[in-house]
Amino acid sequence: MPWKNQGGGPWGSGPKGPWGSGPQPVGPRPPDLEDLLRRSQDRLQQMMPGGYFSGIGITLIILLIVAFWLLSGFFRVQSEELGVVLRFGKHVRTVQPGLNYHLPYPIETVLLPKALRVNTTSIGMTLIEDPARRGRTIRDVPEESLMLTGDENIVDVDFTVLWRIKPDGVGDFLFNIQNPEGTVKAVAESAMREVIGRSQIQPILTGARNVTEQGVQELIQRTLDSYGAGILITQVQMQKVDPPAQVIDAFRDVQAARANQEQLQNEAQTYANQVIPQARGRAAKILQDAEGYKEQAVAEAKGQSARFLKVYDEYKKAPDVTRERIYLETMERVLGGADKLVYDGGPSGQGVVPYLPLPELAPKRTPATGAQSSGGNR
Predict the structure, then answer these.
(1) Preceding omega of 347 cis (within 30 degrees of 0)
(2) CA distance 76 to 99
(3) For the segment 300-339, what is each residue's pLDDT rounded down to a tens digit?
């Protein structure tokens, strides 16, 4: 008999080698798998009278298989997902996030697209790994970003498209398009080129970004709807809109000149807005003064005319008396405020007669009205 089958061989009893005792196990020994399987088979055999292949044993095995098969229909839908249940490959329903159930395979299967997540697609730029900075950097993609405007200028446009799956279009998204990311990118680039091709470069570079973004979003959505893609475009964001790098300095000079032109135009318009109302106000004042003078002159003329007519009516009644009265009133009005010398130049006159202007005989004016009052008989 060989030495290894005897009581330990030439180096004594136990698992020893020529250099002494072999490695000893530390801690509890692991369970023997063969021993566990043997015990399980014995217990299962005790539970199944007549052995495995008896009628009761086969029935229990079939029931266990059916139970596991039915339990395999439970599935969980995550918060960003929607469950699309297919029955023999046909879409039958859509389930919301949470624990759900479908008939086990191969009757029904489930697909779990990220239908509630907003996806971002970049056109004209891409993110690349930068080991030096330990992160990602943006690299320009000229073949996607360089576009031709309606006035035959080249513009560099980088933009992103935010999109997600329509809640009622999950089936269309899964079965109508094969590469959703590539489809959205191709349609977005085509739509942006079309909108830029209809626009002038100056509004694109200055204040027409919102209009451009809205037009591109509507065009992308119409195109994807015509494809039946089941995709909803939530927003289009233009990240960078610049002329090509070779001519950007010249474009900046042009923009600065246009800004100066607009500033001068605004200053001129401000001066015009200030001067024109003043001139209009002065013209209106002159017209109002002329209109007032006209009304005054007409009124005075009408008054004098009416007075003349009244005097003429009285004159026709008594010509001599009226003539003398007019003469006296006129002389009183002419000589009323002057120093006077009375001179009798007739043949019976005695020459120059001095006139003594006594205060009590001189005409007086009242302080309030300035009217003359008679100081005595002349």
Answers:
(1) no
(2) 4
(3) 999 988 888 887 887 788 788 878 888 888 888 887 776 6
Beta-bridge partners for 132: none
What DSSP string describes 70-85? HHTTEEEE-TT--EEE
Residue 241, beta-bridge partner list: 157
**Which stretches of 166-222 are assigned E, i.e. beta strand?**
none
d(CA 115, CA 77): 11
Pick from 206, 192, 207: nearest CA to 243 = 206
Residue 134 near residue 100, CB atoms below 8 Å: no
Q: Alpha-carbon distance 211 to 279, whole Å?
A: 41
Distances, alpha carbon 43 to alpha carbons 34, 38, 55, 57, 204, in Å: 14, 9, 18, 13, 81
Kindly state the DSSP code that residue 177 receives in the 8-state scheme.
Answer: -
pLDDT, tens only, 11-48: 444 444 444 444 454 445 555 667 766 776 666 666 55
Instruction: Kindly state the helix (H) or strand (E) to which residue 104 belongs, with its residue range.
Output: none
**Widest Cα–Cα separation across the chain:** 207
pTM above 0.85, yes or no: no
Separation CA 158–CA 160 (nearest Å):
7
